[in-house]
Amino acid sequence: MKKITEIIINKTNYSQLNSIISELLSIEDIQKSIRKKITVCILEIVQNNCIHNDNEDLIIQILKNKTIKIVFTHKFSIENYLKLKNHIQKINSFSIEELKDIKIQNIISQTKKKSTGNGLIICRIKSGNPIILEELNEESDIIKSSLILVFNYDNNI
What we know:
The chain is of the alpha+beta class and 157 residues long. The chain has one domain (2-151): Heat Shock Protein 90, CATH 3.30.565. Helix content is 43%, strand content 27%. The longest helix is centred in the N-terminal third of the chain and has 21 residues, at 32-52.
């Protein structure tokens, strides 16, 4: 896999998101529709990190071969990691069509919550592939892990 870009995002440098998105949008051999889907997913994961992970550093890598992989590496408390793992397993258990229905129901039933909870659902729908969560290592009460989204850009014209 060829690394297209890598950046560390945290509360002090959100403006650098512009550079990673600009770099992504300039890749001519990836269809515009796929670049847009990837951009939406990057923004969703950064927002989730901000809300649910206390603005910890988030390393974003974009890798390209026959697929495009977006790798988000960050540290979680064990409790938050297990919640994320369970949430991803649940999302991955549904078909894309079921997830589209769930997304709409979440929007309709949203009350006074900050969000609909659709961020990872949207990423799963946009990528068309299961979300991968890999545990990299564990240090006392912290788990370093990678969340991976895979886009089949050759097939998504």
